[in-house]
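Lecture 7 notes: from sequence to structure.

We start with a single chain of 145 residues. Read the sequence below before looking at the structure.
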Amino acid sequence: MTSRQSDFDPRYDPAYQRGGIEAGFEQIVEAPPQVVEISDTGGQQPQAGARQAWASLEQRQRRYRIAAWTLAAGLLVLGLFGLFADMIIPPDPSYLQPNNYGYVVEPWTQRLRWAAPNLIMLGALASVVQLYLEQSQIFRLRTGR
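Now the structure, written as tokens:
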């Protein structure tokens, strides 16, 4: 009995076997693509005028940056001082006399301790915000936006 299909099974073609290659099969495979360099700054570099504008902006903002960092550091230091003020400056025992109503007057170092966590958090928040603003401005400068 003869069939219309040939006895050739395409799975056994030498092109699909290890080491078996026909001359026409090499021509089907394309050459590998060329390597393309990708830069993170985009296709265009910022112009000299834009760089000078950023430089003048940075000169004007430098004093505000220094003031913001000084404020953040001052709040952190004041908060840490308030947290440990009783150990740094021990209260005078004669100062702990009751007032006219019978309550003991608290030294100022204990009152400062109540404000210490808020001062520490405010200083940390100010430094994080300042760091974010500086990094976003540096990113804009690098990308030329």
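The helical segments are 23-28, 48-83, 85-88, 108-143. Keep this in mind for problem set 3.
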